[in-house]
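Translate structure to sequence.
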């Protein structure tokens, strides 16, 4: 781990707490209790999510045709591989798993700044694959913290970070990646978005970082100094810490969250 000042680096502080035998995030237990009462309550964020037959889109192995085409930014190859996977497995909506260790994050951009020689390859959100232009409805009222376009290949493209605060749950943040550029430019930090609002659309390859059209949804229990740099993937060695900082969105998305792991 680096010698970063833990007073200005909440993630370093969480790692230090974990190494001391404490919960990495003190609010994690209360948040998980709230999630247990809210299972499936976010299923309306995307058309068909509640009923869709889910299929795993594998980014763990270089033998995965989707992973190989995505890593090489082969647009047509990725589309063909995804359609073939859909046909063979018979699913409506592809899903990329939370905490999955992936093979596609191999560039220097994913080198760890906390552990010498390590890569950041553990996926900290859930991916939901749907056509470009798919409308997203906000499940829970929020304040915009970040609204930006990260127009670099293999990055987020259009990105929003939202703050959720209410009497029934601890403050938390949601990270929405691979959106259209217009979705990000529509909002400014400080804007309030009502629950149920159509607030964003999925971007296509040229807008979403050159990935298959999909939503990267990630939750965060820490108030980070700069959410623009919130990690979407982390070091496998810190997996227990990531599970506290970036809890699994799957129970909110489907009442039977096993469907998101099938």
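Result:
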């Amino acid at each position: 781990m680096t010698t970063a000042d833990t007073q200005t680096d909440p993630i370093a502080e969480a790692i230090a707490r974990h190494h001391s035998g404490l919960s990495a995030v003190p609010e994690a237990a209360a948040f998980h209790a709230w999630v247990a009462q809210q299972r499936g309550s976010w299923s309306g964020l995307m058309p068909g999510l509640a009923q869709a037959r889910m299929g795993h889109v594998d980014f763990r192995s270089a033998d995965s045709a989707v992973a190989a085409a995505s890593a090489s930014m082969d647009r047509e190859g990725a589309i063909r591989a995804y359609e073939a996977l859909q046909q063979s497995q018979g699913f409506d909506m592809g899903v990329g798993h939370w905490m999955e260790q992936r093979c596609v994050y191999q560039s220097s951009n994913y080198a760890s700044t906390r552990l010498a020689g390590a890569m950041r390859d553990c996926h900290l959100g859930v991916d939901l694959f749907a056509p470009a232009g798919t409308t997203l409805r906000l499940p829970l009222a929020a304040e915009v913290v970040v609204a930006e376009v990260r127009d670099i290949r293999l990055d987020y493209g259009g990105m929003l970070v939202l703050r959720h605060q209410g009497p029934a749950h601890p403050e938390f943040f949601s990270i929405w990646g691979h959106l259209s550029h217009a979705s990000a430019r529509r909002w400014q930090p400080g804007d309030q978005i009502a629950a149920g609002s159509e607030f964003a659309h999925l971007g296509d390859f040229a807008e979403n970082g050159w990935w298959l059209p999909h939503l990267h949804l990630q939750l965060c229990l820490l108030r980070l100094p700069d959410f623009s740099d919130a990690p979407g993937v982390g070091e496998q060695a810190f997996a227990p810490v990531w599970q506290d900082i970036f809890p699994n969105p799957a129970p909110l998305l489907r009442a039977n969250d096993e469907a998101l792991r099938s």
